[in-house]
Amino acid sequence: MRTFHNSFYSNTTNWNEVISSFRSTLHIEKDALEKVHYCIHSDNSEINSSITSKIDKLHQDLDFENVIMDKLTVKTEKVKVLTVKLEQVEKQINELLYEKDAMKSCIADVNSLLSDIIKTRDSLITITIKKHLAEKLRHVFAKLNRLEGVSESSSLPKQGEKLNSQDSQLDLPITLKAFEFRSFIKVVNVPLTDSGADHLLFSFYSKHTKPQYETWSAKKITFKKVSGPIETDSFPNAHFKVARGSTSQVCKFTLADLPFLNPYDWILLLNMLLKDEPVVAHLKRMLISYIQEVGKMDVEIASVLRKRFFAFPKEAPEDYDKMM
Question: Which domain of life is it from (predicted)?
Fold first, then answer.
């Protein structure tokens, strides 16, 4: 019995030592596990922080790229708009080049018709040429109206009304004499067929003539002021300042513009200038010659149309025959 008791006591002691050792081992393992857990938790926190930071950075980069894409889209749209505008400009340039060629052709036709008017003596042929010239000029001014806003309706004189008032005067027919004033030329006895004389006339008109829509008017001249002769390359010239109609609209022109005025203005200018002596000699001779030619043309037209005329032009100037 005592042996059993000693054996039990010995075994109990051994088991207690084993349990105590196991308990110590467990405490050591527990401490180790706690350290490992702490380290894992710390590493996990750092990893989470790093991942969160990188995700935030990625979001910022994406936002920046979105801004860049938006700007790129806007610039792309602008490029598309500019491309369309460029195509339109190129189209307009091509149209302007076409209009330029057409205008050159019309100007060449107008110059040819003007030459025909100067060289033609038949009144009916002159009227026909004038109609063609008017059509060409309408075509030119129609193009100018589209290109520069020049008024097409005021580019050419219209037939005057029968009413003869300050604002609506008689529009006499223009004649070829309006473009061949031999009294302009300083050198006497220049043949009518002299191409040099024609060149001088065209040069004079091209340098000193205003557009017809600026000088022609159906309104009567109610006041005038004329300066002395102005020397040019070939012809003496003079400045006019007149008031027209009931509104006293001011208009300025020179002798080079006379062929493009309402022909009735010629008679009014002559009557006014005759009252204010002295009258410029060549201007008086030119006006009388033109009025004489207008009357002669009316007589010829009346004869061709077998109509009666009640007055024949008289008092032709001394050099009238030289101008024929």
Answer: Eukaryota
| Start-to-end C-alpha separation, the chain | 180
**CB of 178 closer than 8 Å to CB of 257:** no
Q: Residue 113 belongs to what H/E stretch?
A: helix 2-119
Averaged confidence pLDDT in the chain:
71
Residue 154 has pLDDT above 60, yes or no: no
**Quick one: which H or E segment has residue 199?**
helix 195-208
- Rounded Cα distance, 9 and 167, in Å: 152
Cross-strand bridge partners of residue 252: 241
- Taking the model in full, what pTM does it have? 0.39
Q: Which helix (H) or strand (E) holds 237?
A: strand 236-237
Closest CA to 286 of 270, 263, 268: 270
Q: Which tokens hold the place of 306?
A: 């077998």
- C-alpha to C-alpha distance for 134 and 122, rounded to whole angstroms: 18
Contact call for residues 316 and 197 (beta carbons, < 8 A): no
User: Residue 10 is encoded by which pair of tokens?
Assistant: 């010995």
